[in-house]
Structures are given as structure tokens and as C-alpha cells.
Amino acid sequence: MAEVGIRGVRKTYAGGFEAIKGIDCAVGDGEFLVMLGPSGCGKSTLLRMVAGLETISAGEVSIGGRVVNDLEPKDRDIAMVFQNYALYPHMTVYDNMAYGLKIRGMSKADIESRVHKASDILELRPFLDRRPRQLSGGQRQRVAMGRAIVREPKVFLFDEPLSNLDAKLRTQMRVEINRLQDRLGITSLYVTHDQVEAMTLADRMMVMNGGVAEQIGTPMEVYHRPASTFVAGFIGSPAMNFLPARLTASGVELNGGHAVPLPAGSGGASAAREITLGIRPEHLTLESGQGIGDIAVKVELIEALGADTVVHARLTSSGDPLLARLPGSARVSNGDTLHFAITPGEVHLFDRQTGRRL
């Protein structure tokens, strides 16, 4: 096990395109860090620089206190699991898992011990004599992880390993990876565009946008105190509502005159300031006296999802769209006029120009 240090790392391609714009992050020994963001944000590029598959234009990457900028991937003591399983189709599961150890010249007894240990962890022992074509997608991905485990590396690197699986298998594999991390405790960096994977797997998460780390924190820190409108809109389903507003000494004024008082002690603005008000759909309530503010909306569409009901509406005063997630028992219909209050402590204010949290 080892710490991973990422200090001032940049990646610039020919032509001047800067894919990574200076990222600093320290991954603790045994920590599971998830790098989350949309396609093209630089998360896989950063992971590949840690792995040694991409050169570093500036900055330092260290593993276990040793700077690895100039080391080949094979010398970094890392193991990588890719989106594609990359299994040898003509080899059995046992041979796929053992192949890297044979190349390293390990003894047959040591190889057998490691493969059997990993196969027991991943519940692959009954499949060791099968070939990849005889396995399901989830079993193939477990073989790919087994191939990484037998290396006994200092660091695991996962590059969207569940993207090729259907929704049910992804859920099962998230559980498998969680159990694996609990048992092995190996420092891990995990790339995904799926916020559910990030929220359920991460000790901490790095939300990336345009080659920049917008926020690094625990899943709950990122959810409850997003650092920017990008982070706030990317985390959470349905996505956070963003309403144009003005911050005044008395509170927040929405377009059309709706007022949202701020909690005591939070302070306002001595002069009116243009802001963006963020409200998560699950923090809007119909319960009178259970929240702050009074936001009147007209319902346009109802999505009945069983346990939840998602309400698509517009403010009666300004026409701005608003989403609310209510209990499935809520009795609402298209065309209804509703009055929402906001759960205390769940008001998010962002600078209108920069998008940064106030």
C-alpha cells in the first residue's frame, strides 16, 4: 500500500491544447479516490499519467513517496483495470490471471497460491478452467480484477471498469468492488462518469471539469456543500434547480417577487447582488411550517416513479422551471398550483458570474 501524490500536474498536447490544467491532490494510504466528470474533462488522462501511459507536461506524480514521472508503467507497482476486459480469449481464467506472474518469473507454487487466493475473494474458483467466452460480462470483469489483485500492487487504477455492464450488473459489481476495497485496503484511483458509482464507492471524490478539479471532498461534503454550480448540477438526481435571484440584506429575492429568507446569522448583502439560488428537488416540501420561504408553482408534468414522484413545474411569478421530488404518496396532478417551502439549511447561493459558492 502507498500514498499517491499529484502535485501541480499538467498535460499539454501538440498544438497547445491543455487537457489537465494544474491539479493537486494527495491520496492517502488505503484511500479510495473517485475521479468523476463528463466525457472530455480529463479524468482518464490524469489516471493514465499516474499509470505512466501518458507523459506529464509539468508537475509531479509520486507513489509511496517516490517520484515516478520518468518510470515505466511496469516499474510503478500499479495494477490497472480497464473498461474493456482485455482477456486472452484462448486462455482459461486461471491462465489469464496467472500470465502476468509467469512473465515476472514467479514460481509455480507462488502463482497457484496467489491465483487461488484471488479467485476465492472474487468467487471465481468454479470458473478457473473456463475460457472468457463461457463467462458472463460480470464474471469477465471479475477476472480482470483478479488479474490485478494477484499482482499485489501498491495502487489499483480503475478506468470506467463497469461501463460495459447493464444496470443490474453494475449494481452488483459496485458491491463487489466495495467488498474488495474493505478486504484488501489498497490505495485506489477510480475513473467514472457515473455519479452513483462515485457516491457509493468513494472515500473522497474529485469532480473534474475542463481539466480542472472543481472540488475534492467526501461524497456527502460534495453533495451538501457543492463548490460551484457545475458540481451542484452534476451531483444529484434529479439535478439541482438553479434560479436567478438577488441577494439583499433581508434575504433572497427571486424573479417576480418571491422571497426566500436566509437562516439567522448567515447574513445578507449590504447592496443588492445578482446571484444564482440552488435548491435540490428533494429539499422542496409541501408540508406547511416545515421549511422556509413560500414558492408558488404551477404543475406541468408528473413523473410517478413508485417510491418518489417527480414534479415538473414553473414559478407562477416568473415562469422559471422548477423540479421537486416528493414522496410517492403525494397527491398532485397536472395543472395544480402548489406552494413549496425549502428544507432549512439546504439553500445554496452561487455567484452569478463565476458560478462559485458564496
TrEMBL record:
Pfam families linked: ABC_tran, OB_MalK
Cellular-component GO terms for this entry: ATP-binding cassette (ABC) transporter complex, substrate-binding subunit-containing
Keywords associated with the record: ATP-binding, Cell inner membrane, Cell membrane, Membrane, Nucleotide-binding, Sugar transport, Translocase, Transport
Membrane-crossing segments per the record: none
The keyword Zinc is annotated on this UniProt entry: no
Example GO biological process: carbohydrate transport
GO molecular function, one term: ATP binding
The organism's place on the tree of life at top rank: Bacteria
CDD domains found in the cross-reference section: ABC_MalK_N
InterPro entries referenced in this protein's UniProt entry, alphabetically: AAA+_ATPase, ABC_transporter-like_ATP-bd, ABC_transporter-like_CS, ABC_transpr_MalK-like, ABC_transpr_MalK/UgpC-like, Mo/tungstate-bd_C_term_dom, NA-bd_OB-fold, OB_MalK-like
Residue span(s) of domain ABC transporter: 4-235
PANTHER family hit by this protein: MALTODEXTRIN IMPORT ATP-BINDING PROTEIN MSMX, SN-GLYCEROL-3-PHOSPHATE IMPORT ATP-BINDING PROTEIN UGPC
Entry's family note: Belongs to the ABC transporter superfamily.
Name of the protein: sn-glycerol-3-phosphate ABC transporter ATP-binding protein
Organism for this UniProt entry: Skermanella stibiiresistens SB22
Organism placement in taxonomy: Bacteria, Pseudomonadati, Pseudomonadota, Alphaproteobacteria, Rhodospirillales
